[in-house]
Q: What sequence folds into this?
């Protein structure tokens, strides 16, 4: 406020070295700063998804509702979301609007029309809910799912065929006034001679051309996943990072509920700095013995692991110089290693690339975890020569992780596209530090689908025997 007052009274012009141009630059900088302060923070995809799904479930309880679907970047599973958009197919629009407005989490109604309402959820999240008759639902869902660039390209494609597209349906571009309406998106795309394009692919990166050729990839599904290899247990030791909070028994039970065939217990490496190699190796030996005895002697664990293979693994830091934070002898106590970066994020691109390649060169390294080390909303990803790293992983049979943690969602989808084109293989993990985190797999699947990955591209879609051949033998 004081700076605004100084600018408004032109008091700066009385000081040596300050002219009108400098005053204008300061005012513009202040306005930019204030707009950033007032800018609404974007939600992480899982947060927005939870809010939208809860609202959709409530709307669906109305007897007139036929279908409810989130729209926009949320439906396309973007990593962060601005506003929430929802489409509702209903035989009674006024009645369904009335029902929707009784939703308890609506704290303010910003606008109410005959087919759309705009509300705030929990005093914070702007949400547009659009209501339409069932026979028009497909066109509206397609239109508001986007993306903007996909829709622009689709309109151009339709115009070449003599059609005009809108949220209401499809018309002949010239002359005829009839509007062709569609109950489903599949019918909408079929009318244009296209296969149904998965929402995650709709970014105008070649998907329309593939749909025209009936050559779209069959994207991975969550039901394809056979195991989770990045799980932290509550084994008590002096860890380099945070411990897990669930027991091996709890993790095994959860894995069976998820119909997994195998899991990897991948605690962080023991504290490295200030420790002797002998002391670290003693911790590793004790850890292996602990898990083996638990697997052999605990009735509960034994029962759960009869149908579940448990691999004793470790997540190891790639240190600043590229060495791994584990003595060479320590590798004898694990089946396989995950490596990752947890510090020194600001290294130059060439230094970081050499660091990663050195870390990946150690024996038993099978997975490169959360490769960019980003934390959504708080830390940018590292800079590295990703083409070189992807080529190295492909030629050395090292899997690139898609980390399902909501704060990471790492590898980002654009780099997933690049990596798979270079022949790299992937693994989707949850990085669970609690048994409940094993349910986060769905968010990694979303990233994989945005990266156009198919089941064949992802190693933990393989059955246990085939997976073990890769994990233990390369």
A:
């Amino acid at each position: 406020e004081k700076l605004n007052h100084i600018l408004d009274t032109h008091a700066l012009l009385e000081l040596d070295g300050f002219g009108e141009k400098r005053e204008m630059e300061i005012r513009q900088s202040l306005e930019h700063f204030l707009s950033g302060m007032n800018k609404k923070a974007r939600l992480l995809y899982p947060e927005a998804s939870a809010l939208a799904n809860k609202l959709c479930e409530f709307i669906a309880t109305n007897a007139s509702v036929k279908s409810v679907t989130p729209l926009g970047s949320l439906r396309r599973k973007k990593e962060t979301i601005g506003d929430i958009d929802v489409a509702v197919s209903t035989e009674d629009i006024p009645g369904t609007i009335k029902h929707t407005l009784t939703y308890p989490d609506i704290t303010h109604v910003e606008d109410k029309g005959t087919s759309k309402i705009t509300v705030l959820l929990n005093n914070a999240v702007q949400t547009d809910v659009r209501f339409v008759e069932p026979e028009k639902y497909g066109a509206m869902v397609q239109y508001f799912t986007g993306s903007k660039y996909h829709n622009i390209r689709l309109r151009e494609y339709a115009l070449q065929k003599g059609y005009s597209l809108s949220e209401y349906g499809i018309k002949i571009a010239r002359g005829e006034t009839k509007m062709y309406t569609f109950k489903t998106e599949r019918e909408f795309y079929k009318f244009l001679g296209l296969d149904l394009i998965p929402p995650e692919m709709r970014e105008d990166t070649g998907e329309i051309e593939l749909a025209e050729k009936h050559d779209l990839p069959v994207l991975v599904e969550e039901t394809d996943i056979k195991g989770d290899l990045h799980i932290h247990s509550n084994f008590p030791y002096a860890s380099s990072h945070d411990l897990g909070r669930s027991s091996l028994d709890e993790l095994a039970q959860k894995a069976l509920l998820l119909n997994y065939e195998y899991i990897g217990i991948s605690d962080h490496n023991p504290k490295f700095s200030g420790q002797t190699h002998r002391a670290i190796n003693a911790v590793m030996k004790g850890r292996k013995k602990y898990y083996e005895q638990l697997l052999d002697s605990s009735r509960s664990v034994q029962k759960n692991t009869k149908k579940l293979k448990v691999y004793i693994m470790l997540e190891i830091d790639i240190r600043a110089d590229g060495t791994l934070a584990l003595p060479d002898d320590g590798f004898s106590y694990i089946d396989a290693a995950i490596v990752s970066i947890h510090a020194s994020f600001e290294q130059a691109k060439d230094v970081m690339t050499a660091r990663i390649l050195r870390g990946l060169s150690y024996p038993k390294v099978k997975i490169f975890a959360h490769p960019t080390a980003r934390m959504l909303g708080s830390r940018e990803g590292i800079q590295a020569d990703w083409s070189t790293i992807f080529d190295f992983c492909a030629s050395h049979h090292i899997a690139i992780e898609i980390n399902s943690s909501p704060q990471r969602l790492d590898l980002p989808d654009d780099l997933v596209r690049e990596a798979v084109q270079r022949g790299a293989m992937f693994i989707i993990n949850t990085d669970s530090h609690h048994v409940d985190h094993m349910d986060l797999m769905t968010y990694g699947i979303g990233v994989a689908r945005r990266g156009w990955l198919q089941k064949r591209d992802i190693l933990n879609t393989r059955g246990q025997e085939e997976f073990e051949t890769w994990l233990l033998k390369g």
The two ends are 64 Å apart (CA to CA). Confidence is low (pLDDT under 50) at residues 35-39. The first strand starts at residue 43 and ends at 44. The chain is about 35% helix and 20% strand.
